[in-house]
């Protein structure tokens, strides 16, 4: 198979011909129809994730067709069109038994714990408990865009944030995570404030549900501006970027008993970011993470797609080749482009 592979962290990513994967007893092999380009892949390439071992094939947001199954697979067959959460639960640990496969103690993560989907084929373990059957009406590009950013935002806004109609939601960062959170929060009936440093991204955020936009480079005090717009502070605030500044601003902009949802990855110098703990205590704030979403929760998200309440296809930006994706991944920290970039040609 053709695959994008790197042999050293922060080194060149090359398109190589590598052996086709074989399914494990509890796994399947999927022919990749499309795979998203996510900043988490950039973190893996940078060496920020201890699960990544060299040489490595990145990629974790994808959809495709099953072409091989292990001997213990019962729920799926060759030819099924599927996607999979970027965290696959083992099904046996205490976290999986409690329904929290997204934080499985022995999680399988394509693109991190194993080779990923920047390839013509990808092998998936724990397949029976984690694969999600795609609706016939959903194409692979749209399905691939759900895998990490959209699904994690769905869990963050709906399950963790429990956003309700009429609430104020602030979203810091209008990349793939932030735009997803904006669309989902608006669908839940919230009033959404989008915060970014790029006017083009803010303009796009308005088209998918943001009612107010703040350019952080043009406002002296972002949390104060949010508290003013929302008449006292956000009920729920999402850090969709993952930086010390956006995290601090997200907690600081909350009204009393508000919820901060951390979705953007905090790595490197940002891993132990300072937060205003005095406000957390005095205002009884909640600080919550959102790390993926369980396969069984995909039905609720897919139903909202089917009824038109959310439209992830509107977030798709560029569609590129595998070779173009290898180059684009190395440049992801420049935050060029709007929306979700998807590889759909191999």
Describe it for me?
This protein is of the alpha/beta class and 346 residues long. It is 29% helix and 24% strand. It has eleven helices and 15 strands. The mean pLDDT is 96.
Topology of this protein?
Elements (H helix, E strand, L loop, with lengths): L1 E5 L6 E5 L10 E10 L1 H8 L15 E8 L11 E3 L10 H4 L23 E4 L2 H4 L1 E2 L6 H21 L7 E5 L3 H12 L3 E6 L2 H9 L4 E4 L6 H8 L4 E6 L4 H9 L1 E9 L14 H6 L3 E4 L8 H9 L9 E6 H9 L9 E6 L1
Parallel strand pairs: 8-9, 8-11, 9-10, 11-12, 12-13, 14-15
Antiparallel strand pairs: 1-2, 3-4, 3-6, 3-15, 4-5, 5-7
Helix pairs in contact: 4-5
Poorly predicted regions are none
Shape: globular
Helical content (DSSP H or I, runs of 4+): 25-40%
**Order of SSEs, N→C?**
EEEHEEHEHEHEHEHEHEHEHEHEHE
Structural class: alpha/beta
The DSSP helix count reads 11
Average predicted confidence as pLDDT: 96
Distance between the termini: 10 Å
Find the count of extended strands (DSSP E, 2+ residues). Answer: 15
Q: Largest sheet, if any?
A: 7 strands, mixed
Instruction: Report the portion of residues in β strands.
Output: 15-25%
Gyration radius, rounded: 19 Å
